[in-house]
Amino acid sequence: MKLDFVTSNSHKYEEISHYLQEKGYQCRWVRMKYEEIQADTTEEVSMASLNALENLIDGPFFLEDTGLYIKSLNGFPGPYSSYVMKSIGNEGILKLLEGMPRDATFITVVSFRDQKGKHQFRGECKGGISMEMRGKSGFGYDPIFIPDGEKKTYAEMTLEEKNRNSHRIRAMESFLSYLQEKS
Amino acid sequence: MKLDFVTSNSHKYEEISHYLQEKGYQCRWVRMKYEEIQADTTEEVSMASLNALENLIDGPFFLEDTGLYIKSLNGFPGPYSSYVMKSIGNEGILKLLEGMPRDATFITVVSFRDQKGKHQFRGECKGGISMEMRGKSGFGYDPIFIPDGEKKTYAEMTLEEKNRNSHRIRAMESFLSYLQEKS
User: Fold this and answer.
1) Number of domains in chain A
2) ipTM of this predicted complex?
3) Whole domain around residue A51: which residue ranges?
4) A1 Cβ neighbours under 8 A, 6+ residues apart
5) Cβ contacts (< 8 Å) between B80 and chain A: which residues?
6) Contact map slice: B 77-116 vs A, CB within 8 A
7) Which tens digits make up the pLDDT trace of B79-138?
8) Closest CA to A139 of A162, A107, A165
9) pTM value?
10) A22, A76, A87, B88: which one has the fewest Cβ atoms less than 10 Å from its Cβ?
11) What CATH number should be reported for the domain holding residue A81?
């Protein structure tokens, strides 16, 4: 089965297509930038993007939105993770967290449109922010996020190691079980 | 002449209606929350909001979007100023700026829809971020912003003092000269 994934982020495409291939699906990259709304949750941003694209794309497709929620910063950068990365980056996050608790959660919400309607699948991964940036793999906040039970940051892991338990793959697992039930 | 101003922010309404009244205009408060997009500039956010509201409101109306752009933080928080205020707040900004240059610019973009179409008016105020929060007036980043040539933060000023030179009022001045030319 072929699945159309809309994203402009090559890292996200790599992680998700690698996972889908392992599961026997083919992932087609619809490389497209789209406007995201400002909202309080990753769910809302992800659904608004699906709504904005639904008339532009034929047939079933999915997209995802991901946010890093840091507890002691009231959820910052949350739904604005990509903008915050471009402006203050990991250095800014580390500075904001000096002397503060470092618990954080990565949340991915996959939104899917098929003949039956619109569906969302959520995946999260709890962990903490490291004391300094470590590792060269991945993208975004990967160099400062350590999943619970791990010693490495995401950026110190191979794609296979990151995919084993990541927020993004957990959302994809729940998406695939929907597809399997349906068929 | 009556002008319809769409905002959910009572402080913005107060500043702008006070100014308009002085200039002989009546300002009607259309108290409404609306979705904002994620974009790189205050112009884009402001225009997208106008577009989103144009079919919901009869007759001419205006709205404004404001951002604080801090040079050494690559323009952060910029178009995300209201979210950043809710999450890390002024404390977070002061922490991010420890040991860094403090130049900043406040930018307001007023967007107006009339029979002739859509129009934007921009106002900016250059200044710097104070070393600590000062003052109780105003809202948002007012306690940490000192306009060039002033000693007080916006939050240490009366509404009349702030309105004398603010980004918001500069945008409104340019809006009013458009209205006056037109009539």
Assistant:
1) 1
2) 0.73
3) 2-182
4) A24, A25, A26, A179, A183
5) 38, 80, 83-84
6) 77-80, 83-84, 86-88, 92, 95-96, 98
7) 999 899 999 999 999 999 999 999 999 999 999 999 889 999 999 999 999 999 999 999
8) A162
9) 0.84
10) A22
11) 3.90.950.10
